[in-house]
Write a structure and sequence with these properties.
The complex is a heterodimer of chains A (450) and B (193).
Chain A: H1 3-6, E1 10-13, E2 23-30, E3 33-41, H2 48-52, H3 60-64, H4 72-86, H5 93-124, H6 129-135, H7 137-158, E4 167-168, E5 171-172, H8 178-203, E6 217-220, E7 231-234, E8 239-240, H9 245-248, E9 249-252, E10 261-264, H10 274-281, H11 287-295, H12 308-328, E11 345-353, E12 356-364, E13 370-376, H13 378-396, H14 402-414, E14 427-434
Parallel strand pairs in A: 2-14
Antiparallel strand pairs in A: 1-14, 2-3, 4-5, 6-7, 7-8, 9-10, 11-12, 12-13
Chain B: E1 18-20, H1 29-32, E2 45-51, H2 61-72, E3 77-82, E4 85-86, H3 90-95, E5 96-105, E6 114-117, E7 129-130, H4 133-144, E8 149-156, H5 168-188
Parallel strand pairs in B: 2-3, 2-5, 5-8
Antiparallel strand pairs in B: 1-3, 4-7, 6-8
Helix pairs in contact in B: 2-5
Classes of the chains: A alpha+beta (450), B alpha/beta (193).
Amino acid sequence: MKAAKARGKKLEVDLLARVEGEGGLFIKLQGGAVTEVRFNIFEPPRFFEAFLRGRHYSEVPDIVARICGICPIAYQMSAVHAIEAAFDVKVSGPLRTLRRLLYCGEWIESHALHIYMLHAPDFLGYQDVIQMAKDHAEVVERALKLKKIGNELVSLLGGREIHPVSVRVGGFYRVPAKKELVPLAEKLKWARDAALDTVQWTADLPFPEFEQDYEFVALHHPEEYPFNEGRLISNKGLNIAVREYDHHFVEEHVEHSNALHSQLKVRGPYLVGPLARYNLNFEQLSPLAQDAARAAGLPAICRNPFQSIVVRAIETLYACDEALRIIEGYEVPERPFVEVQPHAATGFACTEAPRGILYHRYDIDDNGLITDAKIVPPTSQNQKTIEGDLRQFVTRNINLPKDKLTWQCEQVVRNYDPCISCATHFLKLNIERNEPEDEPAVPPPTTAVP
Amino acid sequence: MRLLNASSSPAVPSLPSFDRKPDLSQKDTKKTDPKNLKYSLSPGEIVVIGFGDPLRGDDAVGHKIAERILQWGLPEVRVIATPRLTAELSEALGRAHLAIFVHATPPSRRDEVAACALDPCPSKITSSHVEDPCVLLSITHATYGRYPYAWCIGVPAVNFDFGQNLSPEAEHGIGVALERINHMIEENCNLPV
């Protein structure tokens, strides 16, 4: 397609597949510059925070799990940690370790889904994974097996793979016997090898040259790659306890989105997710994952969001490695949960969902009833950064043919694996150009197009 | 998709998700005695997938039917019970000659057990689970180069409240569905390989 044709006034994609939720994009160009970018999220508000008011704290983990079918563990983990923080309960030892194991299962399942089924088709030029499977059957087969093993881990610990039911405040309703974990260990050894192959496979994909000076925000724990605990840090000086979150971050409503935009009060947009975790916690990765990252040619600080697919593969490898470590050392807890005594309090927690930090805050009364709740999902936090990426990407690549530009704008969004159960199903992209058809808008593209 | 030993923790509801072939040492000999079977076993594997939420009243009919079929002890039949359909089920479908999906359907004008033949249909995958068995057939076809003959059986259901009790309508539908599945398995040996 000729570039001139791409400078039509409007570029439209009715359906952006491989994301969840309902939303759209509007990009306006004037005088060779991008003057407006709107990541429209028009999926109706889901009111979960309102649903929670008046409910007993013990119901919260099962209610919030329904927010998302991909990352229900993340919602459960943030909820139970926030409520336990309110009640001054510390879950430690094997129960704490089991929670890490459960999160490993969700990361494996979620990352395998996104790497192979949602993101890889972008790089290889397929509309979806079904088309991709016709030419890369063995790759999709590997994805399905990896995803299945992640789900089996979630199913064993959580009772079922989608919207698990075994998580409770203080621990679990049921914990597995050691012999139940043994068969999974064998499968996880295969998964670890498959994840290693995945790192190498993703590293060979063609990445557009696109680096940005992001503020990465993630949990940081001195001794382990973060799942459930740690301080919130950034590469630009943020270093706070989770309970200080509301002092540093603010949510605002914008007209074009039903999802609140989150930003740092002082510095504005920031990035959460695998890229942030990796950049802020490289030393906490297992040696195997670190070696795999180096072998893949990934720098210790990665600023190209298109390479998030490699980082997800490294985190999948880490999750398999960590799960095996936990299973090998597993001792059945004496009790599946610790007792909780409710009292009026406010609790805060942040955990690392596959897509980034997930913040929960609950106000609870003396009867253990929720009086107020605040939930900030990762996609909400990344919205402004996604819009910033689109602005930069379109500016640099304005001369790309229309279909390639459209394709890569969608890819820019999918770099973030937007969890659109929490935000957007289909995306409509409109690019409006108010400039002459034959006027070069910006310098030639620097992007390597697959 | 596995059977949890819920007895070790009375606080946990029974979650009979599983992916099994029958344990022939535990089989119901009355039902699996060849004299009581009306058919010989199939030329290829059969997979029965019961899906639905076992904690939401009649939505458990898929699980209940799967449990009953497991008790038949048919060695060629792989029985799976799961709350949701997931893409990785295509691995089982890729090996099967016949697939039977069974689940609860909301009340409609036709309050009877209905079976419809399925074909692969292209669709988008955006989540960890899929809503339509036809999408699973598409994934199976693309990944494994084949897909099974497939049927979907809907059992009319009236109660989707929390709980593990079935309505009389659902109980009746289970019996009808089992007869229908029995017949499908019987006919399977006549399907071209």
